[in-house]
């Protein structure tokens, strides 16, 4: 790739997957899959376009819009839209690449893609956001559809933005179809969709706890980063199941429990209201038992915790923070965010798993642990296809089954392809990577996307 511009986030995601494949017995048993990796690492299509819109003062503004349609071997491209000033092609390629294998682990018929724009919704009026969404979708609608590419929300794209985007698609294409997920409940949305990533993360970790003989959630101390959708619902589900949540964070700083203090469901609700207004955690009225620390992530400030759930953004756990979590006695870490841990942090966790055996920290990658969000997006697509709406209980039961199966696939695949010493917990990162990759690679082979010399 030396002739191409550097794409650090994508290169990291590719390296993380490729290293686990190389360090397993997969290529020894099935050397032809090296060819599959070469093909799968290049998107089927990358769409880039300009988005011209008008602010409230009547001034012309312009942003870059993108859609990376990475792989459709298992179904229509599926993955979120991100509106954030940091958005670039490298970040969207990394997210789309991860999405391929995450979607495969759900067991649903979904390919992988990602998109968005370097537009910042913060500080914008509803009218400005509506005009931007309209301009963005007038171009994107030429490239998506219910059987082609079904975007969802991501950072900066909530129910409000999905509504604006869907309205423009409907008017531009003269179609009412399940082209976006995360829609309003009265016009094709699914119950449990807002909660799905956070709830699914907690369900997944529940299976880790059970397999490792650590009991259930009751009494566990849990550090969570982020304060958006994923972090909020993960925190609420942890609290519901009897755990003690000791942190939340945003890009400006962290709220951390002091002494016997903890984050309550009322705290989460109040913080959710702040985030709807796009306000910082620094504006939250801190009560006794909590403190706000400016400019830090929570990991080195939470003391001893049993479980860590990164739920903010990529690379939010560094090598030093990983070492601090291990030193503090953390036994489980699972990513609610995509690629939440750096490669160096993952090496710390995996090294500890091999060294300490059953007494180690056990790490679960985002492509497995946070696949609940896209899973319920897939369930929303199924409901749209049938023109039906399932109950909350039906969707939640299906989500629980999907998370159980994603955990089991990763576990079983690790046992098959990764050498494990006696008493050592299987590598969920290797198992999940291999399971997702093999499923996609096999579908690509059967459809003629790659082949080897007879």
What does this structure look like?
The protein has 454 residues and is of the alpha/beta class. The protein has helices spanning 8-22, 26-29, 33-40, 89-106, 126-140, 159-173, 196-211, 229-240, 265-276, 319-327, 343-356, 366-369, 372-386, 392-417, 428-446, and strands spanning 45-54, 60-71, 77-83, 112-117, 149-153, 221-224, 244-250, 253-257, 290-294, 307-309, 332-334, 362-364. Among the domains are: 44-179, Leucine Dehydrogenase, chain A, domain 1 (Rossmann fold); 196-369, NAD(P)-binding Rossmann-like Domain (Rossmann fold, 3-Layer(aba) Sandwich). Helix 5 (126-140) crosses helix 6 (159-173). The mean pLDDT is 96. One of its GO terms (cellular component) is cytosol. It catalyses: L-glutamate + NADP(+) + H2O = 2-oxoglutarate + NH4(+) + NADPH + H(+). NAD(+) binds at residues 197, 229.
Task: Give a quick precis of the structure.
By secondary structure, the protein is α/β, with parallel strands linked by helices. Among the domains are: 44-179, Leucine Dehydrogenase, chain A, domain 1 (Rossmann fold, 3-Layer(aba) Sandwich), CATH 3.40.50.10860; 196-369, NAD(P)-binding Rossmann-like Domain (Rossmann fold), CATH 3.40.50.720.
């Amino acid at each position: 790739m030396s002739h191409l511009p550097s794409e650090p986030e994508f290169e990291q995601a590719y390296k993380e997957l490729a290293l686990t494949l190389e360090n397993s017995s997969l290529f020894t048993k099935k050397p032809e899959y090296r060819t599959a990796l070469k093909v799968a690492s290049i998107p089927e299509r990358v769409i880039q376009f300009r988005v011209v819109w008008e602010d409230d003062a009547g001034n012309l503004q312009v942003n870059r819009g993108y859609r990376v349609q990475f792989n459709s071997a298992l179904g229509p491209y599926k993955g979120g839209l991100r509106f954030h000033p940091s958005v670039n092609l490298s970040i969207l390629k990394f997210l789309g690449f991860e999405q391929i294998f995450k979607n495969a682990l759900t067991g649903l018929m979904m390919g992988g893609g990602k998109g968005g724009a370097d537009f910042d919704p913060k500080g914008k009026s509803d009218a400005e956001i509506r005009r931007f969404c309209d301009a963005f979708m007038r171009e994107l609608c030429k490239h998506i559809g219910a059987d082609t590419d079904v975007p969802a929300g991501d950072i900066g794209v909530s129910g409000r933005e999905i509504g604006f985007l869907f309205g423009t698609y409907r008017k531009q294409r003269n179609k009412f179809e399940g082209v976006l997920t995360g829609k309003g409940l009265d016009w094709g949305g699914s119950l449990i969709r807002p909660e799905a990533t956070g709830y699914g993360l907690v369900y997944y970790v529940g299976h880790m706890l059970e397999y490792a003989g650590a009991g259930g959630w009751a009494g566990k101390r849990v550090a969570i980063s982020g304060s958006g959708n994923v972090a909020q619902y993960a925190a609420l589900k942890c609290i519901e199941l009897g755990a003690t949540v000791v942190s939340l964070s945003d890009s400006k700083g962290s709220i951390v429990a002091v002494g016997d203090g903890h984050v309550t469901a009322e705290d989460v609700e109040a913080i959710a209201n702040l985030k709807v207004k796009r306000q910082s955690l620094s504006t939250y009225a801190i009560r006794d038992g909590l403190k706000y620390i400016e400019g830090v992530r929570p990991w080195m400030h939470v003391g001893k915790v049993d479980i860590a759930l990164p739920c903010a953004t990529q690379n939010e756990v560094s090598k030093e923070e990983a070492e601090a979590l291990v030193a503090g006695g953390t036994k489980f870490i699972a990513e609610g965010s995509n690629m939440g841990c750096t490669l160096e942090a993952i090496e710390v966790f995996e090294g500890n798993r091999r060294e300490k055996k059953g007494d180690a920290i056990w790490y679960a990658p985002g492509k497995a642990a946070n696949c609940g969000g896209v899973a319920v997006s897939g369930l929303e697509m199924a409901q749209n296809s049938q023109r039906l709406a399932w109950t909350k209980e039906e969707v939640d039961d299906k989500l629980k089954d999907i998370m159980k199966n994603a955990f089991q696939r990763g576990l079983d695949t690790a046992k098959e392809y990764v050498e494990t010493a006696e008493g050592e917990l299987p590598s969920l990162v290797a198992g999940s990577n291999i399971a997702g990759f093999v499923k996609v690679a096999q579908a690509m082979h059967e459809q003629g996307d790659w082949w080897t010399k007879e």
